[in-house]
């Protein structure tokens, strides 16, 4: 049997992952027709059908599933070994892929990443905004960023920011028309701006705590968004109450544009952690980024959760 090019095998894996020739071709930087020709040639050389094609999707055949299960860890190992060779360069190089929601990207990642890219011209960083609980292993991210209480148990977690606090705020005009909620339960009679979580498809339940008592309240209102960015103009415009990170509203609270309510029910909580699989060998570029992001506090130690 003729020897198979490793690029053809990598192309096969890309097609299986994307479930679509067009998407896989975009990832690989080739045309869909060229990718289809490559797969036909691979199947002819192997003498087996690897992919079942329909007008809408592409799925692996039983033979394709077996090849995928064998190839994926091998190709990942090759990628890791090739990346590790950068340690022999005079300066760190390589690409780092991270996923996080908008808030940590805006407040923590971007200031650090911008400085890092200027001082390390051979490092590339890709940031993907995602409010879902992305599986960083299957989606081939080097790391993700989440609050400490939602990091998977088998991950290494590094604190990258201080403790946080989320607060309930409203415009003076809204509170004058509708009154102030005195307890979290009062929110059920108020108009609130909801946040939809893509992973579960449901609405985020606002979280409260007082004297060791924890509450989650599902609120209702006229506006639902899937990002916290649109909440600010909405709450400033009197659409309803919003539950936002304190650092996003501190300026408006000082100016009087917004008013905080339920203050005693919103204590601080653990901030953001960068997390990554314990079994993955960090590349020099990733190590440089982690060290730059690490939050220098008394908690400054890698924490293996679990």
UniProtKB/TrEMBL annotation:
PROSITE patterns on file: HTH_LYSR (PS50931)
Pfam family, one: LysR_substrate
GO BP annotation list: DNA-templated transcription
Keyword terms of this UniProt record: DNA-binding, Transcription, Transcription regulation
Cited Gene3D superfamilies: 3.40.190.290, Winged helix-like DNA-binding domain superfamily/Winged helix DNA-binding domain
Database matches in InterPro entries: LysR-type_TF_proteobact-type, LysR_HTH_N, LysR_subst-bd, WH-like_DNA-bd_sf, WH_DNA-bd_sf
Ranges for domain HTH lysR-type: 4-61
Domain of life assignment: Bacteria
Family stated for the protein in its record: Belongs to the LysR transcriptional regulatory family.
Protein's recorded name: LysR family transcriptional regulator
Protein source organism: Aureimonas endophytica
């Amino acid at each position: 049997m003729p020897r198979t090019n490793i690029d053809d095998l990598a192309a096969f894996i890309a097609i299986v992952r994307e479930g679509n020739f067009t998407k896989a071709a975009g990832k690989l930087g080739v045309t869909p027709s060229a990718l289809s020709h490559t797969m036909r040639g691979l199947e002819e050389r192997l003498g087996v059908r690897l992919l079942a094609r329909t007008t809408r999707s592409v799925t692996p055949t039983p033979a394709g599933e077996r090849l995928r299960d064998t190839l994926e860890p091998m190709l990942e190992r090759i990628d890791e070994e090739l990346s590790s060779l950068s340690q022999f360069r005079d300066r760190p190089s390589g690409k780092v892929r991270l996923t996080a929601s908008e808030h940590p990207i805006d407040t923590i990642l971007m200031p650090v990443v911008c400085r890092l890219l200027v001082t390390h011209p051979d490092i590339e960083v890709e940031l993907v905004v995602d409010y879902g609980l992305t599986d960083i292993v299957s989606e081939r991210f080097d790391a993700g960023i989440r609050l400490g209480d939602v990091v998977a148990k088998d991950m290494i977690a590094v604190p990258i920011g201080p403790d946080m606090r989320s607060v309930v705020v409203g415009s003076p005009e809204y509170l004058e028309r509708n009154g102030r909620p005195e307890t979290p339960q009062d929110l059920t009679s108020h108009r609130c701006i909801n946040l939809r979580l893509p992973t579960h498809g449901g609405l985020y339940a606002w979280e409260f705590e007082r004297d060791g008592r924890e509450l989650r309240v599902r609120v209702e209102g006229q506006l639902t968004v899937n990002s916290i960015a649109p909440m600010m103009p909405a709450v400033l415009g009197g659409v309803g109450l919003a539950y936002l990170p304190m650092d996003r509203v501190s300026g408006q609270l000082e100016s009087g544009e917004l008013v905080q309510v339920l203050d005693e029910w919103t204590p601080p909580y653990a901030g953001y952690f960068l997390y990554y699989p314990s079994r993955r060998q960090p590349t020099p570029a990733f190590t440089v980024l982690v060290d730059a992001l690490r939050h220098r506090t008394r908690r400054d130690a890698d924490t293996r959760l679990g």
